[in-house]
Design a protein that fits this description.
Shape of chain A: globular
Largest sheet of chain B: 7 strands, mixed
Low-confidence stretches of chain B: none
Distance between the termini of chain A: 10 Å
Mean pLDDT of chain A: 96
Oligomer: heterodimer
Strand content of chain A: 15-25%
Structural class of chain B: mainly beta
Number of helices of chain B: 1
Strand content of chain B: 25-35%
Mean pLDDT of chain B: 92
Largest interface: A-B, 53 and 40 residues
Radius of gyration of chain B: 14 Å
Helix content of chain A: 25-40%
Number of domains of chain A: 3
Distance between the termini of chain B: 41 Å
Number of strands of chain A: 23
Shape of chain B: globular
Helix content of chain B: under 10%
Number of strands of chain B: 8
Number of helices of chain A: 18
CATH architecture of the largest domain in chain A: 3-Layer(bba) Sandwich
CATH architecture of the domain at 21-92 in chain B: Roll
Structural class of chain A: alpha/beta
CATH class of the largest domain in chain A: Alpha Beta
CATH class of the domain at 21-92 in chain B: Alpha Beta
CATH topology of the domain at 21-92 in chain B: Ubiquitin-like (UB roll)
Radius of gyration of chain A: 22 Å
Low-confidence stretches of chain A: none
Largest sheet of chain A: 8 strands, mixed
Order of helices and strands of chain B: EEEHEEEEE
């Protein structure tokens, strides 16, 4: 570690690794930090330690990451795993915590490649042990060679939802039911984007083959499901829902929820980068130029934390961001930059073709946005219900920040990572105004808990 | 709560202490996965109602896996690798002060 880098990258997913490789090709001193132990982000998580027995279930898209990881390892970028970023400021100071010790570093340019997270699904009972995100189950498979206790219910929709279901099938996991929340209306709404999606037929082919595998499975599939609720005493026991007008109840040991993924904007919010609301998928994302530059000088974003486009798009975006950073630091002329970027811009454009279709087909479900029952917990940490949020709104708290002051919603250890999106949706729904107009919670340092002792012992690298 | 897919004999195992009991766990595992696979059912109780909670995200977002690891409360157990002799307890309610050496 040294005091000043040309480039510091947060995240070792496809965007972060690709950016590091490019930056190193042009000789930039590059530091890459990631809070996980293993390389690859979530998509290629623990690829270097993958068990040969799991090759089939992990699939070729997963092992596509192998060559990128190899070039990253050879790139000469300094890489710090298990390193948590707890502060960033507009002067490009970066506070990290590594092996229990806090340091402050400085970079000429910062690239945030922090990826995505599963959209929280606040339904009754989602806090019970035995309920987790579908992507969480997938991480357990990749990292720990584990699957959820059987039988398993999968409830939700989205491309990743299908992928997780297929991996469970490939692993021989007993599935009690697949509760598909995709609405029939969404199929119609996605039709206008179908011709464009046909241009990247390989993605459509993958989607169809996943559907086919699920259809062939020896478990019931409930279409157009709604009114999801999970019940149990100390742990989850059964899920209730309606499907095609009929009420259903399914017993299981594990319940996997999924409703798409959203950008991780904790870093860009902390830096007060300008953000925009993406209505189709109902999430916030930083405003970026074609090279991933944010509104804050010397801070770029690449990959899904700038909007959900998928792993391959993230890789191209990472390279493009790095090319621009190299150019800004004098490593490329304007002409060389365009020459280097041109093929990447074309590839990125192609990768983006499928997304409008997917975004229309799998919009977030109503129950993930605004829980209908007042008893549903929204803030898992401070145990604040939808009813308490509505009550605060009726008392005059009209923004997420005010509701936070009234109720402590968003004040717990997760610092609103889980409740931030539903909180704004509930406020907007109560006030009958568009969600982006109610604003968002302010994100402050430390981004993750750090002890007073660690902070007092902070080492400023000189 | 979790089931291991493959069991191999040559796998390096190590011992950790969970709630005072010794557990034999696979080296390289995260603390959260190891104790849930061993049948722990939950990782923490909430600060408000004392409800049981278990990890929701497995990637450092949800903070439901908070545990006391080697005397330090509120650690994210899904992000910490098991080590020989590690002492792990559930995080019961609000965390206390860390057992930190005041240098």
């Amino acid at each position: 570690m040294k005091n000043l880098y040309d480039l510091i990258i947060i995240g070792t997913g496809p965007a972060g690794m690709a950016a590091a490789v490019t930056a190193r090709n042009f000789g930039l001193s590059t530091l890459v930090v990631d809070e996980q132990r293993d390389l690859g982000g979530q998509i290629y998580h623990s690829l270097e330690n993958a068990r040969p027995e799991n090759t089939f279930a992990l699939g070729t898209d997963y092992f596509y990451g192998e060559s990128l990881i190899r070039s990253f390892r050879k790139s000469g970028a300094e890489y710090l795993p298990e390193t948590m970023v707890w502060n960033l400021d507009e002067n490009h100071n970066i506070g990290i915590l590594r092996e229990g010790k806090a340091y402050q570093l400085k970079t000429k340019h910062l690239l945030i490649a922090a990826g995505a997270m599963e959209r929280p699904v606040p339904i009754p009972g989602w806090t019970l042990p035995g309920v987790m995100g579908a992507a969480a189950a997938d991480i357990l498979f990749k990292v720990n060679d584990m699957v959820p206790e059987e039988p398993v219910v999968l409830a939700g929709s989205g491309p990743l939802f299908l992928l997780v279901a297929c991996r469970l099938i490939d692993n021989g996991v007993k599935i009690a039911a697949m509760v598909d929340t995709t609405r029939f209306g969404s199929y119609l709404k996605s039709l206008p984007y179908f011709p464009q999606a046909l241009r990247v037929a390989s993605y459509l082919g993958k989607g169809l083959s996943m559907r086919w595998k699920i259809q062939k499975g020896d478990f019931p599939i409930f279409q157009s499901a709604d009114n999801l609720a999970i019940y149990g005493a100390d742990s989850a026991e059964e899920i209730h829902f309606t499907s095609l007008g009929r009420k259903r109840k399914i017993h299981a040991k594990s319940f996997l929820l999924h409703d798409g993924v959203v950008p991780n904007i904790q870093f860009t919010r902390l830096l007060e980068c300008e953000h925009q609301w993406y209505e189709r998928q109902r999430y916030w994302k930083p405003v970026l130029d074609d090279w991933g530059n944010t509104s804050v000088n010397g801070v770029s974003v690449a990959g899904d934390c700038g909007g959900i486009w998928g792993a391959k798009a993230a890789e191209h975006a990472g390279r493009l961001a790095a090319i621009d950073i190299v150019y800004k630091q004098g490593g490329l002329s304007a002409e060389e930059k365009i020459l280097a970027a041109d093929p990447l811009i074309k590839k990125l454009g192609r990768e983006k073709l499928i997304r409008p279709f997917l975004d229309q087909l799998f919009p977030p479900s109503c129950h993930a946005l605004v829980p209908s029952s007042d008893e549903t917990l929204v803030c898992r940490c401070e145990e604040i219900t939808a009813g308490q949020i509505r009550e605060a709104v009726s008392l005059g708290a009209i923004s997420p920040g005010q509701v936070k002051s009234y109720t402590r919603c968003g004040m717990g250890p997760c610092q609103s990572r889980m409740c931030g999106l539903p909180l704004a949706e509930i406020i907007a729904d109560s006030r009958q105004v568009p969600t982006p107009t109610v604003g968002h919670l302010k994100i402050r340092p430390p981004l993750k808990p750090i002890t007073i002792g660690q902070l007092a012992d902070l080492e400023l690298l000189k | 709560m979790l089931k291991r897919l493959h069991i191999d004999q040559q796998q390096k195992m190590l011992k950790i202490e969970f709630e005072g009991k010794t557990l034999e766990v696979r080296a390289g595992e995260t603390v959260a996965a190891a104790i849930l696979e061993a049948g722990a059912e939950y990782t923490r109780t909430t600060a408000i109602s004392g409800a049981h909670r278990a990890p929701y995200c497995q990637m450092g977002i949800c903070f439901e896996c908070l545990m006391e690891i080697d005397g330090v409360p509120n650690r994210q157990a899904c992000m910490v690798e098991v080590q020989e002799g590690m002492k792990v307890n559930r995080q019961y309610g609000v965390r206390g002060l860390a057992d930190e050496k005041l240098v």
